[in-house]
Design a protein that fits this description.
It is a single chain. By secondary structure, the chain is an alpha/beta fold. It folds into 2 domains: 6-244, Ribonuclease Z/Hydroxyacylglutathione hydrolase-like (Metallo-beta-lactamase, Chain A, 4-Layer Sandwich); 249-394, 3-Layer(aba) Sandwich (Rossmann fold). It is 35% helix and 24% strand. The chain has 12 helices and 23 strands. The protein has helices at 57-68, 83-86, 89-95, 105-115, 185-199, 203-213, 233-244, 262-276, 292-301, 318-330, 349-359, 377-395, and strands at residues 6-8, 11-13, 16-18, 23-24, 28-29, 34-36, 39-42, 46-49, 75-77, 100-103, 121-123, 129-131, 136-141, 151-155, 160-164, 220-223, 249-256, 282-286, 302-312, 315-316, 336-343, 363-364, 369-372. The strands form 5 sheets. Strands 1-2-7-8-9-10-11 form a 7-stranded mixed β-sheet. Strands 17, 18, 19, 20, 21, 22 and 23 form a 7-stranded mixed β-sheet that branches. A 5-stranded mixed β-sheet has the order 12-13-14-15-16, covered by helices on one side. Strand 1 and strand 2 (11-13) form a beta hairpin. Helix 5 (185-199) crosses helix 9 (292-301), helix 6 (203-213) packs antiparallel against helix 7 (233-244) and helix 8 (262-276) packs across helix 12 (377-395). It is elongated, with a radius of gyration of 24 Å. 47% of the residues are buried. The structure holds MU-OXO-diiron. MU-OXO-diiron binds at residues 80, 82, 84-85, 165, 224-225.
């Protein structure tokens, strides 16, 4: 049996923890695991909001059964169809065959496409309401946060927003669910990493969703990953607002590739130049060692970015090239950018990195440092200048906002 955590009113947490999966979506490391959150509203009518990944379906069903003690589920409300949340729909229907699946048009297309289910469904539209008795629900469509069918469900009675992936983070829930009852230290960086890697491309839809929800009075945010937010609602909304506007803190991420240490010496010199000119937050990543998801997280966090790498077979170093494609994919905006490169007989990386910065429409420092073989005094001094000039650029207020939508 399970004694589920009560959130508010008749709302219970019935989610699960995954400490087995190595990589989320087979891409993103999970050092603290991940939770798949689901919520049960045991009112006159019973509603379940989202399910969990199929691997944890048995525990999930046991938690629901412990709460309902033989009662049926009337509605399964699907805020998000990605399989980490929809994966137990088929199993749930075996135990609760009469459950009505509630979703918008895009949701129901996916329910049929993924699971072959086209019966016992209820299509809702933006703003539609559903009464469970005491609890009164309203549905808000929030497309592309971060899939096309994503929506949120608001419980007007208890002022609870069921937000899907929005405001979520990696990290299991180790004995507690509400943010007011647990130590949150591990979750904050994992929220940045979650946002940067999963939601990062969709800043504009996130902004639209935040505006749509702005007038709601919210006491609890029940996301599909990580803690239920109650004592930190303004903080998590502020983090999402800043990230979705691509607003970075004053600080610089230096990412470099270096096969023999020469390019690394250039990175060290740029860092010196930054710190000597007042930039305290300088985060350095050796692209061969740091996971790309962590690098991306820091790129979303800080306004400054410096990338350096050697020319490799007349191209960019492949690890740097891979990182650039991940940044391009997320269409990161409004960064202050510098770059440097090195080569042994033919310099290509500097030109390619310059093209990259121009294509991203970022502000760039004028310094273009490219060293032949080992780092020598004149280019060492130029790397210091690059850091100095980037520090000045970071302190210059933005005068253009064409990239901010
Ligand atoms: Fe947690 Fe977009 O799935």
């Amino acid at each position: 049996m399970y004694i589920n955590t009560k959130i508010a009113g008749e709302i219970y947490y019935v989610g699960v923890n995954d400490r087995i999966k190595e990589k989320f979506e087979n891409m993103l490391p999970l050092p603290y695991g991940v939770s798949y959150n689901s919520y049960l509203i045991a009112d006159e009518k019973v509603a379940l909001i989202d399910t969990v990944e199929a691997s944890h379906g048995d525990i999930f069903i046991q938690k629901i059964q412990s709460q309902l003690q033989g009662r049926n589920i009337d509605y399964l409300i699907i805020n998000h169809m990605e399989p980490d949340h929809s994966g137990s729909i088929t199993q749930l229907r075996k135990y609760y065959p009469n459950v009505t699946i509630v979703g918008n048009k895009r949701t129901l297309e996916m329910v049929e496409g993924y699971y072959g289910i086209d019966d016992n469904t209820m299509e809702i539209k933006d703003g539609d309401q559903l009464s469970l008795g005491h609890h009164q629900l309203t549905f808000y469509l929030t497309p592309m946060v971060h899939w096309p069918e994503t929506m949120m469900t608001y419980d007007k009675t208890e002022k609870v927003l069921f937000s899907g992936d929005a405001f979520g983070c990696f990290g299991t829930l180790d004995g507690g669910v509400l943010d007011t009852e647990i130590n949150l230290d591990k979750y904050w960086d994992e929220m940045y990493r979650y946002y940067a890697n999963i939601v990062g491309k969709y800043g504009s839809p996130v902004q639209k969703a935040l505006q749509k929800l702005a007038s709601l009075e919210i006491q609890y945010i029940c996301t599909t990953h990580g803690p239920v937010w109650h004592g930190n609602i303004s903080k998590v909304v502020d983090i999402y607002d800043r990230l979705s506007r691509y607003e970075g803190c004053e600080g610089v991420v230096i990412v470099y590739a270096s096969m023999y240490g020469n390019t690394e010496q250039m990175a060290e010199a740029v860092a010196q130049g930054l710190v000597r000119n007042g930039i305290k937050d300088v985060v350095m990543h050796n692209v061969a060692k740091s996971d790309a998801s962590v690098i991306l997280s820091d790129i979303f966090k800080y306004k400054g970015l410096v990338i350096g790498g050697p020319t490799y077979s007349n191209e960019l170093h492949p690890d740097i090239h891979s990182l650039l494609t991940k940044i391009e994919l997320r269409q990161v905006k409004n960064r202050d950018f510098g770059f440097f490169g090195s080569f042994s007989w033919a310099g290509v990386s500097g030109k390619k990195l310059a093209e990259f910065g121009e294509n991203m429409k970022w502000c760039m420092v004028d310094d273009r440092v490219e060293e032949k073989m080992a780092l020598k005094k004149d280019n060492y001094l130029k790397c210091l200048d690059l850091g100095k000039n980037l520090a000045e650029l970071l302190r210059t207020p933005d005068t253009k906002d064409e990239n901010s939508d």
